[in-house]
Design a protein that fits this description.
By secondary structure, this protein is of the alpha+beta class. The chain has two domains: about 80 residues, no CATH class; about 190 residues, no CATH class. It is about 35% helix and about 20% strand. Helix 1 packs across helix 2 and helix 2 packs across helix 7.
Length: about 280
């Protein structure tokens, strides 16, 4: 006989995100609401480059001064071997709420090219005016160009990406509309500062939505809010159907009786349920 069922997966998830942020070295304030915690988590997750082995691709326009060639080679070695690359990123990575406009708009990371630890923040490499601009996926690393600090709205970055690897951004292509005159760097900067999304047009007539997913009016990445809402819906759907899930588990011969207390159990981002009284783990395909 099944008694009372206790389940609050969203709250369990928020607690899990708190733990993850703590493990990454970020603080969660007492005043942080659940959405604030999720925003911090997904913002950091979007900005870090995970330690995975990736295949390297270099644009045909790529060039680099001799001063930074060694740093480029060290970065390439870290890419193919799956070593840490986050020490090359902006020190704003220390702020879980910082909005990286270049990444949120065009999906492009920028890496500093120092080859020694930074004196003030030794967890990062020395800060350089010169930057490596790269497009990073789960298994690929695209070296777009070497530029300078402040090149956040340089159209050449997206033009190089489009000209070299159009298949990587095909999913962002907008079909059925005509390309408008391209926005100037000053116009792009103004639009970004006002948290407005703009399409990306190219001379061949192709038009794309922002490769980085775009932003909300608050400046937060649209992907962050989408990921939060998607998880929220998944948890509420599981809670709504928990009686059905319990019955399906019992039909498999697993004893679930009396009052049941379900907790969220995460296995490498995979959602599972754990029933505390029976010590039963329920996973989903």
């Amino acid at each position: 006989m099944i008694g009372q069922i206790s389940i609050d997966l969203y709250n369990d998830w928020i607690n899990y995100l708190k733990q993850q942020l703590g493990q990454w070295g970020y603080n969660v304030e007492e005043t942080d609401k659940p959405l604030d915690i999720a925003i911090k988590y997904f913002n950091v997750q979007k900005r870090i480059i995970s330690n995975k082995c990736r295949e390297i691709f270099i644009s045909k326009e790529f060039s680099c001064s001799a001063e930074f060639l060694n740093s480029i080679e060290v970065i390439k070695e870290a890419v193919v071997t799956g070593k840490d690359l986050n020490s090359y990123l902006s020190i704003n990575l220390l702020d879980a709420r910082y909005n990286d406009q270049l990444l949120n708009d065009w999906g492009i990371h920028h890496l500093h090219l120092g080859n020694t630890p930074d004196k003030k923040r030794p967890q990062f490499v020395e800060r350089t005016i010169a930057l490596l601009f790269a497009y990073v996926t789960e298994d690929k690393f695209f070296l777009i160009a070497v530029g300078k600090h402040g090149d956040w709205c340089e159209r050449r970055l997206v033009e190089i990406l489009h000209n070299n690897w159009p298949e990587q951004i095909e999913k962002f292509r907008i079909i059925g509309i005509n390309a408008a005159p391209p926005l100037s760097e000053a116009q792009l900067k103004n639009i970004r500062n006002k948290h407005v999304n703009a399409s990306i047009e190219f001379p061949d007539g192709s038009v794309y939505a922002p490769f980085g997913g775009g932003v909300m009016s608050s400046g937060i990445s649209t992907n962050i809010i989408f990921n939060h809402d998607k998880q929220h819906w998944v948890f509420r759907d599981l809670e709504k159907n928990i009686s059905k899930i319990v019955e399906e588990v019992r039909q498999k011969g697993i004893e679930l009786e009396g009052d049941l207390i379900f907790r969220l159990h995460m296995e490498k981002e995979k959602i599972c349920l754990f029933e505390e009284n029976s010590k039963t783990l329920i996973s989903f395909e």
